[in-house]
Design a protein that fits this description.
It is found in: Cell membrane. By secondary structure, the chain is mainly alpha-helical. The chain is built from twelve helices and two strands. A two-stranded antiparallel sheet has the order 1-2. It is globular.
């Protein structure tokens, strides 16, 4: 019983931040039809900036709980400034281009942004542990659980519900849906498609940075750690279905639970399990478990 509880909590904790990052990736693809490899750089920049700000706030005498304000600040700065700059200068020129060209271009952009991180933040790792000390742990089933990890689960749930509500219950969501199904018809209807593309890309960048910022206090933020998360995020969205918010949630849960089980019971196949499930899903459901329905064109 204790083992199952540990796997559940650890799996949910891992899936929570992975879902936030994957949500930004799948929303960008669902609307812009761009498989953005550079999304991993937003995650890395969010983590680095958050860790840097936490350290600065701590030296200024801000309480451990108060340093948590660095998380949304870092996510917004990365999304609104870096995400906006990249969309306006590079991404907007890739709309409607060949998929291979898009992947190559965003992969090159990812490498450039990873190197710029080294120039800005240096090569030494950052340890921003203060927020984890601010939240007391709780006893669940007689096992002590990290309060910060539980907060990540709650935050990811809230973000998922808000994203679903915005896309399915608001006027803005109707505009996005119209563009997803037929962008040319959306233009004919008077929808400002470039503005919607810009907004969606920036929102996706904010989500990617938020995932990195929230996980930063629990890890050593070091060069190159954004590579693993972008690979796992691709696995999540492929399993769930590119462009599907419920699919991203299910994919993150599968990856999180399988990884937690493997780490505790079979650590030598930790990554193999994730990719084995992805391969199995692609064999039987090439478009993912919850791929959005495509409009039939006559």
């Amino acid at each position: 019983m204790n083992l199952l509880l540990t796997i559940l909590v650890e799996g949910l904790g891992y899936a929570s931040y992975l879902f936030i990052v994957s949500l930004g990736l799948t929303v960008i693809f669902g609307v812009l039809k761009i498989l953005n490899v550079a999304h991993g750089a937003f995650y890395a920049w969010g983590a680095y900036l958050c860790a840097f700000l936490i350290g600065e706030f701590s030296t200024m005498g801000v309480s451990d709980l108060g340093t948590m304000v660095a998380i949304p600040i870092a996510a917004l700065i990365v999304g609104l400034i870096l995400g906006s700059a990249i969309e306006r200068t590079i991404i907007k020129n890739l709309y409607g281009r060949d998929e291979v060209l898009i992947v190559l271009a965003t992969f090159g952009l990812f490498l450039v942004l990873e190197d710029v991180i080294l120039l800005v933040f240096g090569v030494d790792p950052y340890f921003a542990y203060q927020p984890t000390y601010a939240m007391p742990g709780v006893q669940i089933g007689g096992i002590h659980q990290d309060g910060y990890k539980l907060s990540m689960i709650v935050v990811s749930l809230v973000i998922g519900l808000i994203s679903w509500a915005v896309l399915n219950r608001t006027h803005w969501g109707k505009l996005v849906t119209a563009i997803i199904y037929d962008s040319e018809l959306a233009v004919a209807m008077g929808i400002n498609v470039p503005r919607v593309f810009y907004t969606v890309f920036v929102a996706g960048a904010v989500l990617g940075a938020l995932g990195g910022a929230y996980i930063a206090p629990t890890i050593s933020v070091a060069p190159g750690f954004g590579v693993e998360v972008i690979v796992l995020s691709f696995a999540v969205v492929v399993i769930g279905g590119l462009g599907s918010i419920p699919g991203a949630a299910i994919g993150a849960l599968l990856v999180g639970m399988l990884r937690a089980y493997a780490v505790l019971q079979w650590p030598e196949i930790e990554l193999f399990v994730v990719y084995a499930v992805m391969a199995a899903v692609l064999i039987f459901r090439p478009e993912g478990l919850f791929a959005p329905a495509k409009a039939r064109k006559i």
